[in-house]
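Step 1: inspect the first sequence and its tokens.
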Amino acid sequence: MTTTNNPSDEPCPEATHCGYCMSPTRPLVGRCHRCHTPLCRLCAVHCVGCGETFCLQCSTRCESCADPLCDDCADCPPYAEGQWCPACYAHETDSLAPEYQDPYQNIPGDEHLTIGLEIEVDGPHDHEAITRNDLIAGWCADGSLDRDGWEYQTQPLDTDPQTLSRLHRLIAGIRPLKSQEHAGGHIHISRASGQYAADWACALDGLDANRAAWLNMRHADPEQNRWCRYTDYYHGKEVAVNDDHDDTIELRTFGPWNADTAEQLLPAIKWIKTMWRLFQRHPNGLSEEDIEAASRTAWADAVPASAREKAVV
């Protein structure tokens, strides 16, 4: 932060012009709380933390939101850079590292399907209501979202109807107040002996853009698939299927989950459940043609009749 060159802490004498831009015509609106320089409206800024008036030289900008900020109100979150305003600092440091609990931990074997959602919500929403829900394992700020946005991680969930009903109610209760074009809703599926990223990518490739949209998938839409492009490379944050996790395969194709997409959630999970079981029954692999055909059949079984009637053949 830049400091003032004014050697005195005493108030400046009465002046008829702005001491910062030296304009004799602009009316004065106050004095800098730090260096006491008289200021016009264009040169005065008000700290978002304390509300006091400062000149441009005695203030800075929040690294996150770019609002004006004084030195006394600035702070820097761990693992971040620059000065942050109180609101952005509170947002950045309000997080909970997830402690995942396997719903099958007391059941023998490790060949069980679980799903885990990353629920990104951009902009203002009822953050407290989501964090109080026991389906949520953790949450954090996300650099792709604005300062009121969050990413929430669910517990690994079984696909019992009661569990899915509770998940649906959670999603249906999320009502963002702005566009969600920068948000996503990745779904993690449990690894097991028959699960391979390449098979899941093939299953996605079996769905054209119209079918994919009915399941809130974006990989087939070139205008929306920046972070989930279909590819035969299964690593990183720009692919539809990410194979980088030890315990799960991440399907990054899904769009944000909220009240606007809640009715697509259970069909999407039903499609996942059908394909997961198919891969488990054929651990030695299936042909690409068989996987793509099975994917379309699973889609038709999952979506409402109205979607089947409009499907591209």
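Step 2: inspect the second sequence and its tokens, then contrast the two.
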Amino acid sequence: MIVNEGCQLVVIDERLSKGLVRAETRGLTDALKQHTGEVLRTFHERVMAHFEKQSRLTLPEMQAMAVDLHNSAKTAFNPLWCDLEISAPTRGRPQSGDYEMLHYWINPKHVEGTANRLMMIAMFSAWGSRKQASMRAHDTLTSFYEHAAHRLLQRCGSNEAAVRAIGERLVETIIIPTLALHDAPSSLIETELAIPFMDGLLIGRFVRRSPDTIAGDHKIISKAGWRTRPITFGALAEFVVKTYIGPNEMTDRQERIAYQVESWLDIHRKEAETIRRYITYKLGALWDSGHMRRDEFDALAADYRRMHERVFMPGSSLPIGSSFR
């Protein structure tokens, strides 16, 4: 457990902001390949061995493989959060049955010209049936500088615990950058956002990114063999946490921000859980999969925008994180 008494404001060196753009244009990084490669290779070999002999897996084979892949992913990623769902055949479709899993994990990237790392919140998702298996690994549009965790740990705990605590909070609140970046105008770039954390605030900024950047890897395995599909994000920005301020450094305005954002999260706890779990659903958008209707999502996004404008865009000369550079 991390105790946050006496945590200090993190001041970010200007080189980190400059190095971020270079780090983000690298696409599928060596770290991503390293973490996912063994999991993908092992699972591919096992599945292909079955598909070479028969066109479909038996139900017990599919279920056992899903559990095995889920456990292998947990070992490989040490996930911040994960879940596995296995569906049994129905009376009307006795040959059906499928599975789906999602793992959030931290994919560290070195920032050129610094000794710091950018800790990307990444996803590993997999789903399949008795005839096909798919796996996908990619970074999300949310990250934080390791330097923020360094300053947190100096007074509050170990490096591993500090990094993990920040990562878990960003996964828990991923609804916020998801809604902020949905159909976001270019005016969002270089604006600030804060997320309540340990009686203080994680303060970050929306930074520009290339919509053409390759964000990860998508593999499909079936009797026909192994296919690869590209992954891209159309968003023009991403959210990067640059600093943490503890309760002793909070201004009155920052305390109001923390209260109002936390209140909004409490009201939308159910929607936050749905978005966290199905943000990369196998069938496409939330409304395509039936987990949330399009009008419900649009209403939620509109409600978020109202909160964002009220909380983060008041007529004030004091920015949220006035002390970071």
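Step 3: confirm your contrast with the notes below.
Strands lie at 81-87, 98-110, 117-129, 132-145, 192-197, 200-208, 216-222, 225-229, 237-245. Residues 38 and 76 are 9 Å apart (CA to CA).
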